[in-house]
Amino acid sequence: xxxxxxxxxxxxxxxxxxxxxxxLRLGGAFELDxxxxxxxxxxxxxxxxxxxxxxxxxxEVNLDEQTRLLRYYTDDDxxxxxxxxxxxxxxxxxxxxxxxxxxxPIDSQTQWQDALDNQIxxxxxxxxxxxxxxxxxxxxxxxxxxxxxxxxxxTAETDQFVMVYEREAASEQYESLMIAGEEKIxxxxxxxxxxxxxGFNLTPTDFTLIG
Length: 211
Known about the structure:
Blueprint lengths: L1 H8 L19 E4 L1 H7 L11 E11 L5 E7 L3 E7 L7 E15 L2 H11 L4 E4 L2 E5 L7 E9 L4 E16 L2 E14 L2 E13 L5 E3 L2
Antiparallel strand pairs: 1-2, 1-12, 2-3, 2-8, 3-4, 4-5, 5-11, 6-7, 7-9, 8-9, 9-10, 10-11
């Protein structure tokens, strides 16, 4: 009886609110416009992009008190990144679809420091023969912390050190290149990696919610 009473009186754990925007949500799904992909994919580095995407994790990066990045990670090795300057859909200023190109593990503190000092930020980057120019004026990687919400209800945090590059892939079609040094603390031990992703802009008509 007393055990039952204790359970009855115990406060419920606060429900974790996973960020949602533009109808994108953890566990949801969307379809990309097939015609648009057929038109632009030949000019991009990505190949064989899926038309249907299931959202398996959500990342949130608070850039300041009003501005945040939301990342909706899908089952197609990519993520939709939304730049938002307030709490509503009307505050969204940019939407991109990124695909992971390469993840390089970093084994030592010396290699990690070299990545921060010399590899992430350069005047330009070359990938598959294409030249990408640095977008941000920063001379050091831009530091940010992402809180990631997973389908099983758990969360994780990753410190990221980022630079973005861009090229004109076709007339009025730009391709982004994101280089991110990532640091995770797992069981009091740092794990590092250098993540390369490429992406392109999405408009509200480029995708349809299906779940």
